[in-house]
Amino acid sequence: MSPDTGNRLSGPLPDPSQEAGYPPEHPQRSGFFTDTSVCIGCKACEVACKEWNLLPEDGLNLTGMSYDNTGDLGADTWRHVAFVEQRIDPSTRSRVDIGMPGMGAPEPAPQQEAGDATEVRWLMSSDVCKHCTHAACLDVCPTGALFRSEHGTVVVQDDVCNGCGYCVPACPYGVIDMRPDTGGASKCTLCQDRLGEGMTPACAKACPTESIQYGPLDELRERAEQRVEQLHEQGVTEARLYGHDPRDGVGGDGAFFLLLDDPEVYGLPPDPVVTTRDLPAMAKYAAAAAGAVAATIAGCFLGGGR
């Protein structure tokens, strides 16, 4: 139960696995830290995810808006690399080395008039299921097909899912989706089968720049804060963390990000809230309303008998 709100469906929750019934000696909560400042858009994570999880390919047709052929996360796409093209004003933005791989220092930008936004930068980010501390998809599942693992992740059991689809609108990030071939829900499992063998998830293992980092969630949060401080010292003042705070609307994400612009630029909601947060209050109101209706009906019968 959340110590701050008394609501099991929202607020900070130190140990979601123990809350789910695992003994205190269960493994540390694990997750992803995705540092978008070093993502090169290679899509190795997408390919590794599909190969390991036997997911069908998405086709080789580009969206026409970027070098993106997957579009977004879905039932068959558990990792999605976003390509965001931004035009910037070279007169107001300096070139800063943020540790990206390269072949040497860039050529100096030619002299241009102020306001002539002709330079371009790419923001690339590998999106994934957030494995929320408070997971609405898990809350609304009527069959128990979605469950909290001993590692703190949220996993779908294909053979238990009845295809009701309640989890799809419940997700505040729009991650989970239904597979047309099986009719069941599908999303990232954080490679639950690999974790059980002490292995790193396939996407993190394949990432050549360590943009995707896997490990104990507390250690990843500390590492991420240090990385943000490093970038700020280098002049990248727009660097910020997303999904790392246990006090946010989902109790903190098990997969969080370092971003170089607002979350909306990457297609992420700016202030996600677990969609089942208000269910306890709604139940109280519904009970009160039902009591009022019952009292009214009883009053009508009693009054009519006089």
TrEMBL record:
Q: Which PROSITE patterns match?
A: 4FE4S_FER_1 (PS00198), 4FE4S_FER_2 (PS51379)
Q: What's any one GO cellular component for it?
A: cell envelope
Entry's Pfam families? Fer4_11, Fer4_4
- Entry's Gene Ontology molecular function annotations: 4 iron, 4 sulfur cluster binding; metal ion binding
Q: Give the residues the record marks as binding [4Fe-4S] cluster 4.
A: C141, C161, C164, C167
Q: Which Gene3D superfamilies match?
A: 3.30.70.20
Q: Where is this region: Disordered?
A: 1-28
Co-factor: note: Binds 4 [4Fe-4S] clusters per subunit.
Residues recorded as binding [4Fe-4S] cluster 3, renumbered to this chain, are C129, C132, C137, C171
Q: Tell me its cofactors.
A: [4Fe-4S] cluster
UniProt GO BP:
cellular respiration; formate oxidation
Task: Give residues annotated as binding [4Fe-4S] cluster 1.
Answer: C39, C42, C45, C207
Q: What is this protein called?
A: Formate dehydrogenase iron-sulfur subunit
Organism name: Actinopolyspora biskrensis
